[in-house]
Design brief:
By secondary structure, the protein is an alpha/beta fold. Helix content is 35%, strand content 19%. Bound molecules: zinc ion (ZN).
Length: 531
Amino acid sequence: MHWTFGENKAKQSQLPPARVRGLKVAYDMHPIRAVIELLFDIAGMRLYDSHIKIVLVGTMRSIMQIKLSFLGAAQNVTGSQFLLQANGKRLLVDCGLYQERHLKARNWEPFQVDPKDIDAVLLTHAHLDHCGLLPKLVKEGFKGKIYCTAATSEIAQIILLDSAKLQEEDAEFKRKRHEREGRKGPYPVIPLYTITDAEACFPHFTPIEYEQSVKLDEGIEATFYDAGHVLGSSIIKVKINKNGQQRSILFTGDMGRPDRPIVRDPTSCEEADYLLIESTYGDRVHQKRKDTKEEIAEVINSTKKAGGNIIVPSFALERSQEVLYYINELLLEDAIPHIMVFLDSPMASRITKVFKRHSELFDKETSALIRKHESPFDFSGLKMVESTRESKAINHIKGTIMVIAGSGMCTGGRVKHHLVQNITRPQCSIMFVGYQAEGTLGRQIVSGQEKVRILGQEYPVKARVVQVNGFSAHADKDELLHWLMGFKKPPKRLFIVHGEPQSAQHFAELVGQETGWKASVPAYQDEITLD
Ligand SMILES: [Zn+2]
């Protein structure tokens, strides 16, 4: 008989009825507690020897095994969640929100493992698709610590509050709309979590320093390294002592790129027994940074000439600060005219303040700017918009303006209102500066759809649509491969995650051709035993 802990109820119900009292206990409980209860049973009762042996051997084997489950970002790019089970402990690496329209229902499904039975969360970075289900996890009983860098902790709290607010607003908006239209949507019209739920998870955040190991339990430790993706982002290495032998599992999280503004380059790593690497751009090569700046200048100059506005759907984290950084540079170089730039995202403004607090994490170029007493995020003409009233007033301004607003994939937030005002005007430009996941409004616009539905109404897309790819905070296939080449010996197993199927598969094949390493592309809910 073979079985493991934490498997689904269906499997448990297929088991024969327990003839030993301890057997039932062992299926449902934490492995170590199950062993103790069984030993008590053995001592106090006469039981069927063979069954006891099976249960004990199964229990011990299960405790000694290292198991890895792919519970999100497996053949898709959001909902990052990996479960690592070892030495009787359960660790969750990331707990992200699903953002692809066709996968959003997964946000409402119960967690694969009861949150009460998860011992700790290791958080790679503060993007919503990596941290966005933490309030739900805590609401449903998670009691442990959420380990991450201080910058990630501060930014994640801002992002989670905003997400909760959006969840509440969206639910209310949908409820009213459905009521008006007399119909029912596919998801419940209640928020996934509330602002109170988000706040309840803040005390769990436990900041740690880069490159300083943290002991999670006897024989289990984790070390965070700078991933160069967004401020505070991490590559996480978990070391597990298994029967006196060390095993290491490395999670890249989202991998940054060399030579990007503000953040440092990704840390190179030399070894790991098991490696999970992201593949968002596993089948593409990015533009060069110089081209990116030129392209932005071109969009600003030509839209100014046409007399339209420039709408920039942008993530509040990193991308907004990068756009400001580039505009500042272009203004200093006299490459663009002085136009009014509105950062219409209170969240982006708050995150910019975290950036200013954590300048110790900046790269050399940005640190040098600060030493010269020049802020990379301020210039004349820049306005931070706070209230909704101010936000609505922006579109009445005559002359060309630029509005940077969230959300980055147009799935919610103030950008939707700005799109409504500008998307039907040919003299305007919609400038995308980030990845647009399948099933999002952003993807519909960027892929050239002629009409799109925004806030319940259909609009023809007449504005110029530009995708500036060079902004990406994700390594492209060459950069990912180059990072892998830093390994001194091949990992025992390499898993390609966080990529749409085509991208992940392409990268797996590329790795095979270039290194001879065997890489696999796990599917959602795959569970793998690491020897
Ligand atoms: Zn990310």
